Each structure stands twice: as C-alpha cells, then as structure tokens.
Amino acid sequence: MGTPPLDGFRVVDLSTGIAGAYCTKLFADGGAEVVKVEPPEGDPLRRWSASGADTGGDGALFAYLACSKRSVVADPSDASDIAFVDDLLASADAVVWSRGSVVADHPDFAPAAIHRRHPGLIVTAITPFGLDGPWTDRPATEFTLQAWSGGIVGLGRGAPDRAPVYVGGQIGEYLAGAYASAATLTGRRRGVGELIDLSMLETQILGLTYYPVTYHRMLGRPWRDARKLTVPGIARAKDGLVDIGCGTAQQWFDLCAMTGHDDWIDEDSPLSITEQANEKAGELYAWVADQTVDEIRDLASAFRIPNAPVANGRNITALDHYVARGSFLTNPRDRFTQPGPPYRLDPAVLRAPQPAPRLGEHTALYRRNEQTGQKSPHFGAQTSVSAQPGELGLPFEGLRVLDLTTFWAGPSCTHILALLGAEVIHVESTRRPDGTRLIAGIPASEPQWWERSPIFSGLNTNKLGLTLDLHTSRGRELLNRLIATSDVVAENFTPRVLDHLGLDFAAVQSLRPDAIMLRMPGFGLDGPWRDNPAFAYVIEAAAGISWLTGYPDRNPYEPYSVGDPNAGIHALNGLLLALEHRRRTGEGVLVEAAMVDAALNVAAEQVIEYSAYGALLQRAGNLGPTAAPQNLYLSSDIDEFGRADSWVAIAVATDTQWTTLCDAIGATDWAADPALATHDGRRAAHARIDERLGQWCAQRRADDIVECLWPAGVPVAKVMQPHRQTELPQLAHRGFFEDVEHPVNPATPHSSLPFRLSNGPRRFHRRPAPLLGEHTEELLAELGLSADEIAGLAADKVIGHTV
C-alpha cells in the first residue's frame, strides 16, 4: 500500500456521538492522525448498544467508528488539562466539534473561541441547527430532525391507515458525518484556517427529501400528497422478502412483460406508472408470492428491472455479491464483522483499520510530545496553513470535471463541486438526456418540456451543459478530447455501459495520465450483481436500511430517498482523497464509489450488533433505541389537503427531559413514579405513555404543542410537509434557500449546502442549471472546432438542443 493521502494531517476530535465519530473515521481511513479527546468517564458511545446488550466495556459500534484513532483523557476542571488540550489544538490541522461532553462544552473550546485563538485551524462544528439563529440552542434528536426536515413524509412513505414512519437506523447522524468530512477536506484545499458551521437539519433535508421546495414552487404541486405503498416494492415471496421497483416507464413495461401481463402496457395511459402499478397491486403481490426470491431476482435482472434481497444484520454477510467483493471485514480488536470502506481507491492508498484505542491509551504519549512540541511518532509533518486568509477564491476553482452522471447520486456529487467553484461540464445527449429531465410530468406537448424539471434544476446549477451522442464515433472522439482537458471524469452507469464504450480507467489514463476517474456504479465494478440497475430503493434494501424502516407487523417500507444522496456525498469524500493523492504524487486515481458500499457503511450498526452480540435489530414503527418515549402523535390540526393528518414528533432522550415533559403537561403522577425515571422503565411502559401523550396532543394544535414543550427543553417537532421547508425560521436565518433565475422557468428557491464556510462563498448558486446542450458550441470551439464543423455535428445529430 502507498502512503495514505491524509498522512501527516492531524485532527483533534472533540465530538461525541455518531456524526463526529463517523466524520473522523473517514479521516482515519484516509490516513489522518485522529486524536480523540475524552472526559474521564469516556465518550458515551463507548457504552452504547442499539440492542441494549451488555458491552462489557467498549461497545462494538464505538470500536468500529474509532478504528485507527488515538484516545487522550482531559478533565476541564483541571487547568493543566485545559492547557494540554489547547496545545493539542495548536499542533493540529483540524478539529471536529459537537456538543455533549464536558470538554467540548467548556467555554474555551467553543468553536468560535477555538477559531479566534487558532486562526490557522480548520474548525468543523456539527450541531442540530447551526451555530447561530433562532433555533441554535433548541434540543433535537435524529427523530425530531427527520420530522422538521420533511423527511418523514417527504416521498409518501408508508400506508394511509397508519402514522407516517421515520427512516430507522440513525441515518441522519451518518449523513452529517459524511458531509462534515467533505466540508473539512474542502476547507483544507484552500490552505487557510476556516470555521465550518454544519447543520444536521440541512443534511437531512438533502438526504431525505427530493428538492421539494423547488418542485412545489416550479410546478405548483407537491411531489406526493399522500402516503402510498410502493408497488411491488418490498413484497413477500415464497421464501422471504424481495424488493422490486420501477423507476422509469420502461421498467414498468418490462415488469408487465415479466409477470405475463403484456396487456397492461399502455404507453398512452393518463395515469403515472405509480398509479398504474397500484391499480394492479393485488395481482402483482400474488405473482410475487408464488415465486422464490431467487426466481424473482433472476427474472428481474434478465429484464433489467431494479431488484434486491432485503438484507438485515443476520443475512447480509452471506449474500453472494458481498462475499465475492469482500465487502465485510473483521474488526481488528474485537473480532466482530464490520463493513469495509465506503469507496475503493486504485492505487490502494486507504489505511487498513487498526484497533480502536482504550480510554486514555495515548494520554501519556501526547502529554510528553506536546510538552516538547513534537508530533507523535509514525505520522508525517504537519500541513502548514496560513493564519491570514486574505483574498480567497472558491475551493475548487481551476478544477475541471467532465460529468457523465445522471439521475440523482452522481449529479449530487458533482453539484457540490460546481457550487464550490469547479467547472463542471454535464454531458447528455438528445437521445438520452439526464433522466431527471423526464420525471416532472410535463406533457410533451408543452414547449421545451424537458427544461422544466425542478429535480434537474435542483441538481445542476452552476454546471455547463454539453450534448454528445456517444453512440457515434464522432461523439466518442470528441469525448476523448474533452477527457484530455479534464482533471476528473465522473460517471454512474452500470459497468456494462462503459465497457461497451471502451471507457475504463486505462483508457482515461491513456488520454490524461493524471486524471481522476470517479465511477459510481450501484453495486460496484465486480461481483455477481455488478450489472444490475440500481435506484435508491434497491440499494436501501440490499444494505439493510429498509429492514429498520416501518412497522414490525408489516413488510418494511423503502425509504426511497437515502441511497442516492448518501452515495453522492461519500463519492465526494473518495474524490477528495484522490485529489490529495494526486497533489502529492502527480498520479491519477480510480475511485470506485459504489452506491451500495456507501449504504453498507451508514447501516453498519446492524451487522455489528448481530456479529458482536447476536442481536438482530428490528423495525419498531416510530419507536427507537435512543429515546423513550419516542413517537408521532396526532394534533388537532387539519392539514393543507383537508385531512386530520398533522403530526408532532416527541423524543425524550434524557431523564431530565422526561422530568421537563411531565412538568410541561402537568403529569405529576408520572414525575413521581420511580418506574418511569429511567430510559428502560419508560421503554417498558411506552404503550401507556403513548396513550396519554396522544390524548394530550390530540386536543392541541401542533404549533401550541411545540411552543409548550420546546422552549422548556423537550425535543419536539412538527412533521413538516417537505415543500414547506422555507417556513422554518432557522433555514431563513442561515439563507439555506437561494432564489435562482432561469430562462424557461420562474425564479425559484433552491436548496444550497448544509454548511457555512467562514471564508465564503456567501452565495452558492451563481447560474441556473443549463439548458440542454446550452454550452456545446462554446466548449467545442475551445477544442478548436470551426463553426462549419460544429454545424456539421448538429446536422448529423451528434449534438443538439431538443429532445
């Protein structure tokens, strides 16, 4: 293995919980020296088990997230320990901070205070709502943040006869960690100190909803206004659960043919494919029930219909694809099973995981080294950073990215690069435009209907638009010439597509030896599932995310949202490591960022709990392991669609919050009951608590419930319709939405990035998403083509501007 790309990069970890731990795990995988500062009692994550297992010391999840890190102990009541931590910060390149420990909560170690004392340091703060604004000090949990984000009802998940349901498994924590890692590495590219202010609410908006504000404002309707089961979705076969989905009209037609119902195919139907599938739900479920999982999957793969087994902590390690790819590793200290990294680099420069540290294992080492001003052994020299930034450009200025991606996962990755200054050339063809142009439901009779997709607009601002028909030799030749001018080539097709084009990493390197090729196939470049089409829902099922989402007495629900944006932000992390490797060595890098590998990492707790403790985690509706009570409760409001379907989320995460809840609702008997004074006691009495709390909420408006509980210190949220995200005052304060002008569509709010950089930019969207092929002529002219040559390409339909 070569030198890891982050060798010599020292990160001080002042965080608690999963988000900061996962962020710094990604740094450690990349070779960084991560020094975790813990209070004398240790990070609470050391004692955590989602199943409630006796961890016997360090919990398995901690041992996974802390691989390759170092641990020092500091007591902030001791002045010498304050000086010790400050010396660590003075020698570091970055610090990751979140509330929750006596060290991080000490005034000297608030993010702004650290940034003032150490202006050359990158300070990344992870908080529920951001470091300032009207909600900055309000309590929140994963569950209440999902409610505020609109993610609980965002894509119509669930069934109309039950409450909506959250995405299980603390997904938002991992999303925040992945964004924090990417933001920190982005700040590092500028070579100056930076205060990075990351909002977990905003990461959930980007990870659990699908540009709902832009969609609603542009088209005048929500993406979905009711909960509906995805059909077939996750269904029960003869011998287990299988996930089958239709993301396009062609896939619906193929499903009809696969099930022997060619008569259902109606290309002129006024109904959407979702509506057509729901009409045939009974017959589809009966067909599935009469087949085995393997029979269904073999057929679906042959028809190129997205499909996957429904994985969980018990069955996932035996699935043939993961066995073939070596997707799981043995924890180097405690010998349980954990996922491998969320991306693979060639050359292989990621660090193999090393054992997690025991509490305070390295305190003496670092005290000795900091007293002498030395770095710890086995790590490189500190990266120098300037304390005075002066005039700064955007982090990715000068980086050219040839963007061959489509739909959501790939464009979400390249979009962040475009928002932060890269020149991103989005390649489409008139025969095969980006798939998100086609899902707005605009009739083809409307002028320029392909330019009116809010999803395409939300994912592609700041990019340049180029059309090339890659099925023609001339189109491929021009693509090759563009590759020679590009730093990065990104794509997210199934491997067979680029196999057909002859465009693998070797081909890219022959055109530009130092190019980075980012490949984002659904299931990876090898293994038996490599050529299976992958949409978010099958990735979620195959990784175990779906297993924890829904009610215990029903089939799991597909989150239908996490798989794509989660893949995008992890791919960006892999790409940033590759860029650092190229900066150090001049070598090109292949980044394989399979969607499913990223999903396995954010669902890691399931396989860890099962292999470490024999505990199979189960879905439990809106109950969860981190709070009790935790549930959705119906308020007295009538929603905007005229339904009694307005909910609030309440999650009591601490015993103090329980006392506060009792006081707020006048439940003096609860407050006096010792059986309810602990998490375990409340968990055992959850049904009784739900009944009474539900009665209390049913008599009140949602806003009144929030106003009663939240200022008192109880985590609570309205379950927002996602297209109403702009109504949240915290988002308005942070300027999360920016209006974007467009030559075809009205000016529309667009979500931005979930972090603020102290060195800017102050605004992220600088130009609208490109019209189809908008910049083709100028880009080809840059390659030296004459006007006559360009006109000939248009006449031959190698390029164009209309579908």
From TrEMBL:
Coiled-coil residue spans: none
UniProt entry keywords in alphabetical sequence: Transferase
Keyword NAD: no
Keyword Protease: no
InterPro entries per the UniProt record, alphabetical: CoA-transferase_III_domain (IPR050483), CoA-Trfase_fam_III (IPR003673), CoA-Trfase_III_dom3_sf (IPR044855), CoA-Trfase_III_dom_1_sf (IPR023606)
Domain of life: Bacteria
GO molecular function, one term: CoA-transferase activity
Name the record gives this protein: CoA transferase
